[in-house]
Fold these 3 entries.
Entry 1:
Amino acid sequence: MRSRGFPQLRTLIEGIDRILIGKTAEQTDPGVREGVNFIVRLPTWTELPPAINVGMKAKKNEDLVLPARIEWNVPPLVMVTPGESVEVEWRITNMGHRKSGTITLTELGQSELIPGQLDGAVIGTFSSRDLNRKLTKLVTDGQSAKWEVLNSFEEYTRSKITEASRILAQEFSELSGRSIPGVLDENAIDALLAEMLFGERESKKDSSIVSRMVDKALDPNAFNDYDPARFFTLNLKARALGEVKRVIGDPHIGPKIRRVHRMSGATTIEAVVAAYNEQYPKEHLGAKRAMAALTAGHQLEVMAGALAPDDELRDWAQSELDAVEPDETPETESDA
C-alpha cells in the first residue's frame, strides 16, 4: 500500500529519469554536426521482481515488480549518424540484481531491449541548430521535472513534519504532566515545509533537504539496498524529525536526556545532569543542553512542573545558563 501522500512510484522514477537526461543534455557538447543526426535516449530504469527482501510488499503482491537503475558505460544520451553503430554496455546491480550485457545503438535505437526497461527513444535532428534546440529542450524538461518531483513530496513531507511534532509533544506531555498536541503550530509547520522543499530564501546554496535527497537519488548506488519509495520514506521521516527538533531547539540527544530524567526521578536540573553523565560519561552533558532538552519549544514556566520546586529550578537554571560559556559541552555525534 502506498504511504499516505507519497507520490506514485512510477511518476517519481519517470521524474528522476527526466532530471538525469536533462543534466546529461546540459553537459553534452554536440560539436559541429551538420545534417541529419540522431540522439539515442537510453533507458535509466527497469522494473523487475525484487531480488532482495522487501517485506510486506512482496507478501501482498505475488507479481510485484520494483524499479531498479540501469547503469551504462556511456552517458544516457548517445549521438549517432545515419548508418553508424555504437556498441554500449549496461548493467543492473541494485535491488539484489546482477545483470549485464552489451547492445548496439543505431539510428533505429537499441538492437535489443533491457529486461523490464522503461522508456528509451530516438530523437531525430536535421541540422546543427536543430540538434542544439532539442538538447536545450531536454535541459528545460529536466529542470521542470526537478520542480515537479519536489512538489510531489509536499503532502508526504507535511505528514512527516506533523508526525514528528506529535511524537515530540508526547514526550514533553509525559515530562510536564500536561497535554501538548504538538510542538509546532500550523504556521510553523508551513514554514518548515517550505524550507525542507525549497530551501531558505537567503541561502545562496541549495539548502533544500528534499532537493538534495533527489540529487542523491540520481546516483544508481542510492538504491542498492532499498527501492526508491523506501529510500525516500526512510530519509524524509528521519530528516523531518531532525528538523522539528532543530526548530524547537531540542538537542539531538534530547530523547536520551528526557528518558534519563524520567527513569531517574531527578527533581533538579543538577540531578538530571549528574544522572545522565553517570550513564553516558563520555558525552559530558552540561546544564545548557539539559535545559534545552527539557524545555525545547516551550517557555521554562511551562515545563517547570516536571521539576520541583519551581522557584528553585528557575533561579538555579538561569544562573547556570548565565555562567555557561557559548562553546561549553559541544554536541556529540552520537545518535539520539
Note: The longest helix spans residues 128-152.
Entry 2:
Amino acid sequence: MPGLALFTPHKAWRYYKAYLKSEYDAPEVRQQRVWQKLQRLIHHAYENVPLYKEKWDAAGVKPDDIRSLGDFSRIPVTTKQDLREGFPDRVIARNYASGKLRYSNTSGTTGRALLMVQDLDDINYKYAAKLRSRKLEGIEVG
C-alpha cells in the first residue's frame, strides 16, 4: 500500500482504486453503472428528502417515471430559494445521521451564501476523485 494511503481515509483510498479500475470498463458498462446510480439517487431523493417529494408530487412525477435522460425534463427545478426556505427539515435527507454530516457554504457570489451539507462518504468520494484527477494530470499519488 502506498505511503499516501496511511494518511488518506480508508474509504477514499478504496474509492480511488475503484475509479482507476473502472477506467478500463467498456463504455456500455460505464453507461449502465451511471444510469443505475442516477436511478438510486432519484429514488433516494424522493423517499428521503421532503422538499423533492413535495415538488415532484405537485408535478405528478414519480421516480419510476424517469426511464431515460429525456425524462429528466419532467423533474421540477429546485431553486436556491427553495433550498434556503426548506433548510434544514425539508432539505436534509431523513435517513442521514446528523453526526455524520458536515456543513459548509458557498461563497455567496450571487448575493447570499447557500449552506451545503455533505456526509462523510461524499467527502471520501470527492477526495478519491481529486486523487484520480492528479493521476490523470501526471502527478503520481502514493
Note: The domain at 9-136 is CATH 3.40.50.12780 (Rossmann fold).
Entry 3:
Amino acid sequence: MSTTPAPADPALNTSQTSVSPAETLTPLEQEVLDEYARLLGNLNNMSTILAELSVNPSAEILDALRGLERKTSLVFTLLKASVYSIVLQQQIFGEEGADGGSVSREHS
C-alpha cells in the first residue's frame, strides 16, 4: 500500500492533497483516507460540543440530574428501610424460636 505525504494543513481533505502520478492511490485506499478525514471532522465537532457543555452545562441537563438525584436518594432510603425490616424480622423470628424451646446461637 503506498502512502501520500502528510498535508501541511490537517484540515485539508485527502482528495485535496497533491499526489505525484507514481504515488496514486487505489480507490479503496482513497475511500479509507476519506473516511478518516470524515472521522476527524466528526471528532472535532464532538470535542467542540463537549467543551461547550463542560463550560456551560445546559439547564435541561441540570434539571435531569436533580431529578435523578432525588430518585437515587429515594431508592437508597427504601433500600435502607428494607434491610432494616429484614434484620428486624430475623431478630423477631430468632427470639420466637428461642422461646419455643429450640436451641439458638448467641450473637455477640
Note: Residues 1-9 have pLDDT under 50 and may be disordered.
